[in-house]
Design goal:
This protein is an alpha/beta fold. It has four helices and five strands. The chain has a five-stranded mixed β-sheet, with helices on both faces. Strand 2, helix 2 and strand 3 form a beta-alpha-beta unit. The longest helix has 14 residues. The protein is globular and about 30 Å long.
């Protein structure tokens, strides 16, 4: 999973891409356990861009999209928000959403 900035996310959205964004913090224990699980799912969904955004390094953007706790995973289809979840959920939870993107 590539760690990107808010500007890079806007570019992906303007391309109309299907995107999974993992909002995380380096100090967050659940974030550390979720990231490798999401990265493992990435190979099964070549049509979806898997990216992460560090909330501490992108504070203004994180506030704009309403990140209140990490990890938060947001799914986009272009600029359309498809789903949003907080906390580390089961792999099947993410697969169900990814299968519909």
């Amino acid at each position: 999973m590539e760690n990107i900035t808010s500007e890079q996310l806007k570019q992906l959205q303007s391309n109309g891409d299907a995107i999974l964004v993992d909002y995380f913090a380096k100090w967050c224990g659940p974030c550390k356990s979720l990231m490798p699980r999401l990265a493992a799912l990435q190979s099964s969904y070549p049509n979806v861009k898997f990216v992460s955004i560090d909330v501490d390094e992108n504070m203004e953007h994180s506030v704009e999209v309403g990140i209140r706790s990490v990890p938060t995973v947001i799914f986009y289809k272009g600029e359309e928000l498809i789903n949003r979840s907080t906390g580390a959920n089961s792999d099947s939870f993410y697969k169900d959403i990814l299968n519909d993107l």
